[in-house]
C-alpha cells in the first residue's frame, strides 16, 4: 500500500499533466486518511482555484494556513482567491501585506502581470488593487493597474494611476510609457508624444516606448519613420509582439501587404493571444480577398478594443450553420449601419436552413427599410435591445449569431459573395412621395435638364478612422462645379456642419433635414441617376438598391473595398475612386468630376 508521500507524488504528477479529475480523487483520499495533511490541502485548493471553485479553494487554504502559518505561498494563494471573490479592500490589504513582505512585491506584481497577459485582466486588477491597499506608494503596481484600467476602457483612471506612478518614480521609463498609452487612448496625441519621449529620456533603449512612438507616427502619416522605430524596438526586444503589430500597420500603409501579413503573424508567434494582431491580420486578409482565413481571424473582433462596447451576454449558443428545422434563431446586427446593409444579404442562407422563425435585431434607423425588404411570414424585424449591449426584451430563441459572422459560414471566397441586386427595396408610397418632392425642388425650366445626383461627404465621426475616410464637403467641392448636374444633398449627422456659412451653387439642393430614416434615403436614391458617397452607410444602401454609386476611398481603405480595384464584387453598380496619396482628396475629386462630365455629355455610359 502506497504511503501518503507516494500518493502525494502520484497525485501531483496527475495535476501537473492536466489530469485534474484523477488528481482531485487522490488528494481527497489522502485527506480522508489524514485531514491535517497541509500539502494535500494546499494542492487541492490550487486545483479548486484552477477549476473555478474559489470559495472551496479559500476554505482549504485557510485550513492549511492553520497548520503551517508561516508558509508565504499559502498566504499568497489565499490572497489571490479572495481577490477573485472580491472581498473588501481591508481584507485584501491584511492578506496582501504579509504576502508582499514574504515573497516580494516584484514577484507578486509579476504574477499579476502574467494574469493580465493571460487575458485575465479582472483578476490581475484585483491583485494589483490588493497590493496597493497594502503598499499605496508602490509605483510598479500603479503603472500596471493603469494598464488594466486601460484594458477596461477607463482611460481617465488609467491616466490618474500612471501620473501617480510618474510622480513616485520619475526615473522609470515604464511609468511614462503607461501614461503615454492612456493619453493615446484619449486621442491626446501631442501629450502622449511628450510622455513617450519622457520614457525614452529615462531609457533610450526602452523597446515598448520605441514601439509606442512608432504607433503615434502612423497616426500622423509618418509610416516610414514608424517602420524604422518598430524595427529598432524589435532589435532590442525580438519577442515584443506589439512592435510587430506597429511594423505591420506601417507596412500596410506603405502598400507592402505581404510583408505586413508576415509581421502580424510574427506577432502571433510570440504572443498568440495578442488581440490587436488578430484584429489587424483579419482586416489585411479580407483586403487581400483571402476570405477563408480572414473570416476566421475576424471572430477575434469581440476581444478587440474597437468593439469592447458591443460584447453581449447571450445565453443561447452560437449557430454553427447546421439545420434549423423546428428551431428559432436570433440574428443581431453589429457595428455600423453600413455593415448591416452589406451583410443582410446573407439572410437568404439562413432561411435555406428552414428555421421555424428568424428574429432580426437591427438599428432603429433601419427598421422601416428592413421590414419592407424581408418576408414577415418568416422574419420578424425587431429594434435593438433598450439596454444594448445588454439583451433585455429580446426573444428567447434556440440559437443566435452576429450578422457579420454569417460570412464566415457562407462566404469562403470572393466568388461566393451573394451579389444579386437589388436585395433591398423601398415602400412604393415613399418612393412616389419623394419623386414629387424632388420634382418640386427644381424650377420648372430646369426639370428636364441634367442628371440627378445624390451626394454624401462624411460618415459617423465616432467611428475610428472617420477623419481619414471622409473627404468632407470641401474635399468634394470640385464635383459640384460640373455643369448639367442637379445635386441633392443626402448628408445626415455631424457632417452637415460643413454647410454652415458656405455658399452652395444653385445646382445643389439640401434634402438632409427632411430625411427621417434609411427608408427615406432609399426612396430618394430610387429617384436618382447616381449617388456619389464617401465610405459610409449610404454608399452601401445605394449598392444594395442596385443604384449606380461612385465611392471615394482613402489611400488605405476599409477591407471591404479590397485593393487596387475600381469595382466591387459586393456591389455590381459601384465604381471606386481611390486616393493615390494619404490625406489628399484632390485626386479622387478630380477623377469623379471628369467621369461626371463624360456622363453628362454622353461619352461615358
UniProtKB/TrEMBL annotation:
Q: Does the keyword 4Fe-4S apply?
A: no
Q: InterPro entries under this entry?
A: TMTC_O-mannosyl-trnsfr (IPR052943), TPR-like_helical_dom_sf (IPR011990), TPR_rpt (IPR019734)
Q: Where along the sequence do coiled-coil regions lie?
A: none
Return the TPR repeat spans: 173-206, 207-240
Keywords linked to the UniProt accession: TPR repeat
Keyword Ribonucleoprotein recorded? no
Q: Which PROSITE patterns match?
A: TPR
**Name of the protein in its database record:** Tetratricopeptide repeat protein
Top-down, what is the taxonomic lineage of the species of origin?
A: Bacteria, Pseudomonadati, Pseudomonadota, Alphaproteobacteria, Rhodospirillales
